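W.,

You were right to be curious about this one. When I first looked at the sequence I had no strong expectations either way, so I just let the prediction run and decided to look at it fresh. Below is the sequence, 188 residues in total, followed by the output.
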Amino acid sequence: METVDLLLHPVRLRIVYALSGGRVRTTAELCERLTDVPKTTVYRHVGLLAAGGVLEIAAERRVRGAVERHYRLRRDRAAIDPEAGAAMSLEDHRQGFAAAMAALLAEFGAYLDRPGAEPYADLVGYRQGILWLSDEELAEAAGQVQAVLAARAGNPATPERRPRLLSLIQFPTEEPPPSAGPVAGGRS
């Protein structure tokens, strides 16, 4: 299965999220984390991610006669590379966006269902707005955001830090205006 196909699924995305930051977990631990997903579904998707090389076995041990595998994410395989992204069809993009939104909704629901969830105190945010940007300005802003996030991407887990799911979504909302030509009654 292609990496694009592996990652464009809400349950598999949530497994990737659960293993981010260098975390190592068993499938049973992933089931505990994804309580809204049937265990058989979690096991099936872990198997697909492992077979596709997105997950690797970090350790194995015998538990009551069965082999318990501890999985970790292969960061080099947990993203869609630029060439594959450029080759995606419009339907692939529609499916990818739907998978990302479904995973985001499920993760937010799981957060709200946790005892002691306090969105305001936890600095939860979900804002939207329109920015008028040229392609060059968008590329510059994206680079700046990427630099800010890259500076923190290697943060190790500490008692003060919590994993936070951050989603950045951007797309044009309208067709570009036609080229500006001479204005009637004005100068060109």
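Here's what jumped out at me. The helical segments are 3-7, 10-18, 27-33, 39-51, 82-87, 90-113, 135-153. And, maybe more interesting for your project: The beta strands are 24-26, 55-63, 66-73.

Coffee later to discuss?

I.
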